Structure formats: C-alpha cells, structure tokens
Amino acid sequence: MFRKGIATGFPIMLGYLPIAITYGVLAKQAGMSLAELTLMSVMVFAGASQLMGANMIAVGAGALEIIIATFVLNFRHFVMSLSFMNRLRDIGLKWKAPLSLGLTDETFAVSALNTEEAKMEKGAFFYTAIILTAYVAWIFGSFLGGVLGEVIPEILSQSMGVALYAMFIGLLIPSVKKELKVGLIAIIAMLIHAICVYLGISTGWAIVLGTILGGMSGIYLLKEERT
Amino acid sequence: MILLIIIGMSLATMIPRIIPAFVVDKLQFRDWINRWLNAIPYAALGALIFPGILTVIPERPHIGLIGGIVAVGLAYIGLNVIVVVIGAIVTVFLLMI
Q: Which domain of life does the UniProt lineage start with (chain B) (predicted)?
C-alpha cells in the first residue's frame, strides 16, 4: 500500500519541484535565509501562500497582514478537507488528523480521485505515502531553489509554471472520460471562478466560491450515482 | 520577525485543514450534502485550472492556454499524468523560444 501510494503521488513530486524551486528563489530574493525559507516549507506546506508570503515579506508587509492573507487564501482547504474526510470515514482519527495537515490542492486532488483505498485494509498507508512524497518534494525543492536559484535559466523555470495546471488536467480528464457530468461540474466551477475574477474578487476567494458553488451542481448532476 | 510570520502562517494553514478531521465523525450528512461533497474534487480541479492557467506567462496568456490544450490531448489519449506534465512543459518551453 505504501509503495502504491508513492507511485500514485509521484506526479505531484514532478509538479511540485519547479514550483518549490520558484518559491525558493523568490524567498531568497525577499531576504529570507536558507534556513528560514526551508522552515517555512516544513511548517506551512502551502505553495500559493508561501509564494504570496515571500512576496509580502519582500515589499515589507506586516506579520498580521501576511497571516490573515494566508488564512483567506487557505480557506479553500477547509472545503477540500471536509470533502476528503467525509470519504475517509473508515479511517481512524489518529490517521485522519495528521493526514488532514498534509492536504494541499494537489494531494487532495490525487487522494480524492483514489477513494477505494480508504475502505481497504492499511488504506491509511496509501494516503500517508502520497502526502509524504509531496511533502518531501516540496521541502527539497524549496531548499534547492534557495541554493541554486539564479543558476536556472528563467525561460525554463517559467515554462515549468504550467506543470501544476497540466497535472490538474491530467487528473481530471480520465474522470471526465468515465462520466461526462464530472466535466460539466468542472466547467461550471471554472466559469464561476472566472466571473469572480472579473468582478474583482481575489483569487483565494474566487477558488472557494468556484469550488463550493460549482460543487453544488453535483447535487443535481450526481443524483443517480450511489456511492 | 520572520519566525513569527512563519508560525502564524503555519497556524493559519493548519486550522482550516484539521477541523474537518475532528467534526466529520460527529456528523451524519444528508444525501444531498454527500453528493455535494463528492462533487467538490471535480469542482476544485476546475476552479484551480481556469483561469489560473492563463497566468503561466502573464504577458502572453495564450501560451498557458495552448499548454493546457496539449495537456488535455495527451490526457485524453490515456497517457500517464507524468507524460502529460512533461508534454505541457515542453510545449510552453518551445513557445517561449
């Protein structure tokens, strides 16, 4: 189960490295030491928040501002965690609580699309392995970015920015092929997000609204499905 | 100062993640809420992909879009996620040079 989880989590590793390196470079430029920027990855483990945090530190924002902005940006994980934990009912709290701490957009997406393991014996190992794979890649990548940031050509690190989006697409398409309605749910969420951005709502809240309201379409669309 | 920011950010990310782990066992959801929660992964993926993908190269949004279309094509023919990711990176890289 553990090995299977690492294999399932491997694409996350590939998607994380470029983002983590980008974060490392930015954090270094923002004036954080190598120890500080790596510690942030260890303790926070949230890509978008850390990139934003490094940016805000660079422009000299206050601690409270940064912390509140982090909370707002991460509120989407509350919704994701609720959905994920609802699927993991068969797994005990002593596993669930630490697993919830490793929840990111990517680990959530991969785990939520592999739900059969939750009912299997030793299923908790499967999710733990996915999250640890991602966590290690994230910390290692941040450190690497802090060390050799300026060596990487900008054009390459910019191109790598597409990695996470490609991963989300790669995760979504097989589900859409199985069940077209799933694609409709995703498109509705996309449109809600786009409308929110158009109305000037910040990205963090736009993702929350897209996820919550877009997910509501599932109440009707997934009606026949029994899970 | 930075240490204080790190600890604060750490708490601000941990709290929303961990609360559901403790409350979900105490709740019995109605059927429609379960359907809603089951749809959340797909909705989240949708909201995470678009319009964010347009900002890969902020000055040239079409590059991210083309990278995304290539990813859709590669995923549609059933290739592994890793191949999809590498294919998209190569596409964007080629469009940049």
A: Bacteria
